[in-house]
């Protein structure tokens, strides 16, 4: 005789010898036999062969967020037994657990994290599809979310937006400003359509397609009453004596400044505030004796609009070029393609103009 009792995470079986054996619910297959464990090595169309449902993905994301099956079921507005059954089904599809069970909840396995990450992208893409379809139904052109670092926002993006709005007034445009280290993950996760940025050093370049645009000269800024503001030329030793506000370590602009101090044989300033916000940097520079570094067009704009001065540094310093960054093998939506092409066309015209000026 064999008795079976099921709870949230376990199946408990009593065998004929009287011994109780507890097993994870991932070893439980529905009685109708619809789901069978997948063989090692998933086929490209595995999700069709296995009858994976969007409901399965929604549950995995809810469990990942709540780390508790009961709360995940409440989040999805379903009963806990139904959530247990869905989890058992999807784990049976893979033939292995997607979550480690602990007394206080569940944490995803490596396989679970892979499925959660890609499942989240799939659901987000479907949500975006609905938004785009609704936009076209209402007579709008579509929508696009552009990620950008500071310099191309001033040099290209604003003018490109004006061009696009003139020809496609119904296009919904969202701009997200941040550093490349933040924008690249957002791009991979589908939160932005493309980015004007650089490929971070800790990311595999094969994940992206990259259309290089141009680099930018760096300038150092301080407030107009700063003791170094009117010097004919400042040295790295003098700069090291003052507080700085810079992008976090690892950011291209921060790395370039660190290399300048290293090449001069001068220790980095002892007081550095890390900030991804250019606005925060400028506020600190304006209200204290802090120094910051910005790309040429940004520094020129800000020094002309406020009480800031560009320091006279004896050598010209250039930053690694930025470019148009998209995810490899992920096509752009119609709205994103309109904006992408506008930026690329504007950049090409600006490049031709620069070449003509240099020839004259």
UniProtKB/TrEMBL annotation:
One Pfam family, short name: LysR_substrate
GO cellular component: cytosol
InterPro entries found in the cross-reference section: HTH-type_LysR_regulators, LysR_HTH_N, LysR_subst-bd, WH-like_DNA-bd_sf, WH_DNA-bd_sf
SUPFAM superfamilies, alphabetized: Periplasmic binding protein-like II, Winged helix' DNA-binding domain
GO molecular function, one term: DNA-binding transcription factor activity
HTH lysR-type domain ranges (all copies): 52-109
PROSITE patterns attached to this UniProt entry: HTH_LYSR (PS50931)
The keyword Lyase appears for this protein: no
Alphabetical keyword list: DNA-binding, Transcription, Transcription regulation
Domain of life of the native organism: Bacteria
Keyword GTP-binding (UniProt): no
PANTHER family associated with the record: HTH-TYPE TRANSCRIPTIONAL REGULATOR YBHD (PTHR30419), NITROGEN ASSIMILATION TRANSCRIPTIONAL ACTIVATOR-RELATED (PTHR30419:SF8)
Family: Belongs to the LysR transcriptional regulatory family.
Name of the protein in its database record: Transcriptional regulator LysR
Lineage: Bacteria, Pseudomonadati, Pseudomonadota, Alphaproteobacteria, Acetobacterales
